[in-house]
Structures are given as C-alpha cells and as structure tokens.
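ok trying again, last paste got cut off:
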Amino acid sequence: MDIERINESTIKFYITYHDMERRGFNKDEIWYNRERGEELFFEMMNEANDQENFELNGPLWVQVHALDKGLEIIVTRGQMSDGSVKLEIPFDDDKDEMPVDNNIVDLLDSQFAKEKDEDIIKDHSLSVVLGFRDFEDVIRLSHTFTEDVKTSFHSFEGTYYIYVTLDEKYSDDEQDNMLSRMLEFGYESDITIHRIYEYGKEILKENALEQLRNSFS
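nice, full thing came through this time. structure:
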C-alpha cells in the first residue's frame, strides 16, 4: 500500500486488490461486507497514523476511486472552528465522494454497480512489483523464469524492482504458480509502480527478464 500526505488535513492511499488479499481481505467482501470494508479502512488509517501522524479524529470526508488494479482513497479531515466544521476537499467534479458516516462500503458498492452499468470490462491480468535485495537475485530469476510475460526493470532508493504482468492468457492457478516461483528470488513490494515511475529510474522498459538473461551469463 502506498500512502501519500497531500497536506495537513488530507491523505491519499493506493492499495492493489492483491495487497488486500495479502492482508486477508477478499475483493468481493470489501464491496459487499460492511464490517470487512470498515475493518480494512481503519487498518489503513492506523498505518497512516503510524507513518504520517495522521490521526483519526473529528469528521472525515472520504473519496474512493475504483481503478482496474486497486483502490485510490482520499481522506480529508475536517477542521473545527468556533463549533463549526470546515472541510477543504480536494476533489474533481467528476469524482464520487461520500462522508465516512455513510460508510465506505456503500461507496464501493455503488462504484462497482456504476462500472457494471457502463459495461467496463476488467481483464484478469495480474501485475506485481517484485523487489530484490541483490542484483544477483534478479539475474538468477531471469535464467530460471523463461515464460513469456511482460516485465520491466527499475531502480528506486537503492533497490532493484521488476514490474511483471501476467496477462489473461494464463489462468488464475497458472498466475499464482508463476508468482510463487518468482517470489523464490525476490519479494512482493508494497511500493506501487506509480511511485517508482515518478521517483525511480527505468532501466529496461520491456522484455526485462529476457534482456537480462541474454546480457548476463
């Protein structure tokens, strides 16, 4: 999960559906189970308090944007002044927003229904950011894993990353099996590819594992 402090009263989260599953939350229950949706939301807020000292107090305004690979959630904390609440909400007119009192699950559910009504077809590809403690582990992976998958190679804050996409031509079981094999050499990173694109360095844009395999014996 990626946490970004926008300003003193606003914080933004980006969490992939795969990260939710790693935390023990099923994608469907987040949309339809009120208690589990609240549990995930407050777990995220606790992490924000630990990392960014963003306390969960006073009225909150929550915006949830359902993306193909996960959720972007923007939380704005109301400022109390002379007994009244002031909200400085950084949202666009075409985004959905809802106060937290009405429950985050309601917004997720309505967003999901809206996407179905608009016939938005989501593929079944799986994209993961893999981190590596040593460059040699990346080379070992390139020689061991030779399946045809989309990969790019990046560096960020002294760590190497492979961004891999297992597309819909592979079944869910095949994707899980391939991911397990790759995780023998690295680890699944909590840093999103969006942050790496913005602040990191792109070393190989495409066919990264193949290029590494051909370049290093």
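cool. The helical segments are 17-22, 27-32, 34-52, 104-117, 135-144, 172-182, 193-199, 208-215. The mean pLDDT is 78.
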